[in-house]
Amino acid sequence: MINESVQIEQKKRYDKDYFLMYKDDPKRMIMYKSELAHIESFIPGGKILDIGCGIGHFLSQFSEEKWERYGVDVSELAIEAARSRGIKVNDFDKAYDYPPAYFDVIVFRGSLQLIPDPFAIINKSIELLKSGGMMVFLSTPNSNSPYYRRFKTLPILTPHANFLIPSDLMMRDLLQNYGLKILDIRFPYWGGPYAKPLRDYFYYFLSFFGVKKKFPFKKSSMQIYAQKP
Fold it and tell me: What percentage of residues in the chain have a pLDDT greater than 70?
């Protein structure tokens, strides 16, 4: 679905250095476990596809006894790393070669904004999702947030790599217009491992005096759980 020149640039961008940020981050692991628990509160097992699976850290948290784990990624380095963790990943030119209604859960974790053709991929994902299956967006930037409205960016954005910066309002309309039922929309800041509210609100206040800092903030990241009828 991606034209060849864009695909080549993406393969260059998502190299060994890019994936180093995922190594040995205890806060990220806390988020993974929380997200896994919430997914399993809806669907306790089955076939799961992670679009933009990277090196497979997130899917590795899903029990092989309960889940058949599949991934999609444009990076050959990531594909090989994910496969070494027992995750089934097609070569990218056949990334979505699965039968219709094959998956119980399809996840976009921190990847939607990085996909050159996000609407086509969401539409394809709906085709691959079983009736009653769930589409999940995790660690997804929210442009309808105080931080984005103030700074026109978000700390979780990868510079120069974004094709779409969605909002909670956009995603609600988009998914409902595609025929999905919204089950839950969350903004995982309060009580999360990255939040330090006193510090974060102080930095937000200082920004009005020209002080520039990156910091977590409420509603900057969202989780969306939607079901196919």
Answer: 97
Q: In the structure encoding, which two tokens stand for residue 70, read together? A: 């599949």
Query: What's the number of domains the chain is made of?
Result: 1
CATH number for the domain spanning 110: value is: 3.40.50.150
What is the SS3 assignment for 131? strand
How sure is the predictor about 15, in pLDDT bands with cuts at 50, 70 and 90?
A: confident
Instruction: For 8-67, give the DSSP string.
Output: HHHHHHSSHHHHGGGTT-HHHHHHHHHHHHHHHHH--SEEEEEET-TTSTTGGGS-TTTE
pLDDT score recorded for residue 159: 79
CB 97 within 8 A of CB 68: no
Per-residue pLDDT, 2: 65
pTM: 0.94
CA distances from 187 to 12, 53, 87, 183, 227 (A): 32, 21, 28, 14, 19
Do the Cβ atoms of 130 and 228 come closer than 8 Å?
yes
Which helix (H) or strand (E) segment holds residue 133: the answer is strand 129-141
At 195-204, the pLDDT tens digits run 999 999 999 9
Range of the domain at 25: 4-227
